[in-house]
Amino acid sequence: MRLTISTWNINSVRLRIDLVAKFVKAVRPDILCLQETKCPDDRFPLKRLRRLGYEHAALNGQRGYHGVAVLSRLPFDHVSIEGFGGKSDSRHVAVVIGERAGMRDPLTVHNIYVPAGGDAPDVNILVGDLNVAPLEHDVWSHRQLIDVVSHTPIECDRLNAVQRAGQWIDIMRMLVPEPTKLYTWWSYRSADWAAVNKGRRLDHIWVAPALGERVASMAVSKQTRGWPQPSDHVPVSATLEV
User: Tens digit of pLDDT for each residue in 75-86?
Assistant: First the structure.
């Protein structure tokens, strides 16, 4: 069974629901993880997403900022929400998909929004906006951004330490190794973002070691940054054999 998971910091789901619809019609992920939905659960546009095939939703939203959601074509066996670092803000939601979906092994997916980097739980798959570009070629200029939040040594060192401690596989860099530049974010401040191309890789998909050989492909949907009223982040998708 092939499973495609996409992650996207949408920067307000209600404002950009048409962009979400356009993206899922093109990519058709089985699971869509959104960050910065900026939407309380009772105002989340579930009807529109159900019409697009996402019958199952795990929401952790709040008004105005933060907020995460997991939308799925497959049923959940379990949903959980955790706080990290003493925070009660809506930055995390996790789902287990397995028996009800007819999968041979259960799969745990954690969707996390971390405004300034941080720790990660021990799970099968972790996706989301971690807001750290940890490697030299994850930014347009390592030298010029070394003192800029998202690429400072302390952030990079700690995120890389988390990855090593959990034996996580960064599948984006597994499939597109350095020194190739790889970005998922382009600032709103750049009027000609595509030509200037001063990007950063702030969005990540990590998998547990047991899933490393099951990764079939990965794609960064850079074209969405050029759509009307875009998010400054673009979706990242991965397909796995599960």
Answer: 999 999 987 655
